[in-house]
User: Which sequence fits this backbone?
């Protein structure tokens, strides 16, 4: 792992553990076993560092989701593959979820970073459009459908990470969301 990757990993861990506002660059430098100057050689500010982490997670998510959308399969089956894949991605990468969960309404993420993040869901946007064209998915604004689906992903991930939750059924969750958006 090179120095930049070490900084990103240390920052991700501390940002999730302590929160974005409670994590100074000095703490990141200490955890990365480097000087603050080295961090600023790679990232001009803490906000730039946070955006770099966001973009890296979204690019990794895109790789996973692009594999889902390569197949030409029925809309419902494709939706089920997408939904379970995105849940699986953030379940396997719990730290990524912890980071992204903190940033849901944060102004720290720049429009440029958001545009890269939006590319990660390009396949689901095409899926929604195709489903609407085939009269399989409700004719509701794409952004509204994305907000609903994304909200259910976020809510489900929060729920399954609660220690008191049992009988966590991804199959039931997927069916509930599909039933809500299908025509």
Assistant:
């Amino acid at each position: 792992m090179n120095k930049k990757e070490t900084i990103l990993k240390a920052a991700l861990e501390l940002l999730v553990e302590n929160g974005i506002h409670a994590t100074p660059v000095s703490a990141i430098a200490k955890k990365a076993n480097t000087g603050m100057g080295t961090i600023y050689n790679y990232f001009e500010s803490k906000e730039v560092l946070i955006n770099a982490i966001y973009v890296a997670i979204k690019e990794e998510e895109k790789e996973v989701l692009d594999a889902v959308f390569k197949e030409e399969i029925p809309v419902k089956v494709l939706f089920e593959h997408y939904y379970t894949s995105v849940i699986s991605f953030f379940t396997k990468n719990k730290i990524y979820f912890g980071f992204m969960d903190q940033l849901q309404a944060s102004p720290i993420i720049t429009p440029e970073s958001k545009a890269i993040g939006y590319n990660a869901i390009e396949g689901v946007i095409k899926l929604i459009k195709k489903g609407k064209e085939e009269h399989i998915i409700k004719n509701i604004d794409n952004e509204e459908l994305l907000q609903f689906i994304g909200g259910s992903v976020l809510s489900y991930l929060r729920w399954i990470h609660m220690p008191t939750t049992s009988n966590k059924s991804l199959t039931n969750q997927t069916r509930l969301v599909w039933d809500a958006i299908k025509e």
User: Anything to note?
Assistant: The two ends are 48 Å apart (CA to CA). The chain is about 70% helix and 0% strand. The mean pLDDT is 93.
